[in-house]
Amino acid sequence: MNESRPESMASFWMPFTNNRDFKAHPRLLVSAEGMYYKDVDGRSILDGTAGLWCVPCGHAQPKIVAAVREMVGQLDFAPTFQMGHPAAFDLAERLMEYTNHRYGHVFYTNSGSEAVDTALKIALAYHKARGDASRTRFIGRERGYHGVGFGGISVGGIAGNRKPYGVMLPGVDHLPHTHNLELNAYTRGEPEHGANLADELERIVSLHDASTIAAVIVEPVAGSTGVLIPPKGYLKRLRELCTKHGILLIFDEVITGFGRLTTPFAGDYFGVEPDMMTTAKGLTNGTIPMGAVFSKQFIHDAFMEAPAGIELFHGYTYSGHPVACAASLATLEVFKEQNILEHAAGMAEYWADAVHSLKGLPHVIDIRTIGLIAGIELAPIAGKPGVRAFTAFKKAFEDGILIRTTGDIIALSPPLVLEKKHIDELFGKLAEVLKNLD
Ligand SMILES: Cc1ncc(COP(=O)(O)O)c(C=O)c1O
């Protein structure tokens, strides 16, 4: 294992990174275990973000690591086009059990972005299979993040992810975002105000006609845009309107799936069932890349009524990769054996108390929490959006905690196995960072 600095950092074009700044002041992680990373200087870094929201069971989870080691030695690769291997089928069954059989089928991808593109394509093909081929529009939401495929950025609503790329998918419209600091600042759980924003879907439907709309896609809790929690009743209303108009509802559960809100999926937390869910990240505890689209039985049924032949012309070389399947099967076992959801639920109040204790520190203008997620919004420096929070991120890393920032919002999403002592360490150090921030 290489734990020393790379000879050169010139050639790696880093994703979503200020490459020049990073390479001048690198932050290099070399190993991880449980709640901590170790950096190249041998310092422990408490992981306040589960990597990128993707390590619910903690790092280097022994059972998952062992399962990956075993599978890579047994079956390094097997195609799933007109072929199969047992782990892909076993995992699909286990995943259906994990949803209490409320979903009928799962389609494997390698990432959240691919899961989103897959779900959008399934939505289009579903309507076409039913003779409803005019339903081709998608409705996303402002400030939504659905990965970086062309489908995902088209339905997504983060301007920076769209602007450089010109024309997107045609026929996409957006609901307004639900963030409202004036009415909803400092919330625990769902904010009071804003359920009426779901009614904007009626306006969009009357503009385009329901017969042209295939699907609505939203994150139940928007993460990458800075932790936007749905107002009370908002998701239920969206569900009602989609049902009323024959529009499929897709929840992008890439960050919220696998326990982030202390329930299997965010839909379970809010008591709202979408027709499809896109997932990734926690699916394999971040160990091996994998995504998955969960679909209701009726969607799959529509494809199976077609004349014999390939029912869905879609798939990835690595759909259902054996090593990813092994990682995911082990992850689900760890969830069960270690009662990860119950543990997370037991930590949620202590977590929320700790986050809200930061109220009143310099520059803090909002704090919002749900499950094991926190958003801490800072006032931007005039004319320099994002700089204040990014400075906090760098200082936090120097002080031994990994936080994540988007714009001027600090977003926290620790491994779900964290203990009170980790919460104390995280917010003790973060408070010091904020107190000393210009
Ligand atoms: C809600 C949501 N959807 C999709 C994605 C994209 O996932 P990936 O980066 O695995 O493509 C992300 C990533 O953060 C996400 O938060």
UniProtKB/TrEMBL annotation:
A single GO molecular-function term is: transaminase activity
Q: Which InterPro entries match?
A: Aminotrans_3, PyrdxlP-dep_Trfase, PyrdxlP-dep_Trfase_major, PyrdxlP-dep_Trfase_small
Show the PANTHER family listed in the entry.
ADENOSYLMETHIONINE-8-AMINO-7-OXONONANOATE AMINOTRANSFERASE (PTHR42684), BETA-ALANINE--PYRUVATE AMINOTRANSFERASE (PTHR42684:SF1)
Q: Which domain of life is it from?
A: Bacteria
Which Pfam families does the record cross-reference, listed alphabetically? Aminotran_3
Q: What is this protein called?
A: Aminotransferase class III-fold pyridoxal phosphate-dependent enzyme
Keyword field contains Transferase: yes
Similarity comment: family membership? Belongs to the class-III pyridoxal-phosphate-dependent aminotransferase family.
Keywords linked to the UniProt accession: Aminotransferase, Pyridoxal phosphate, Transferase
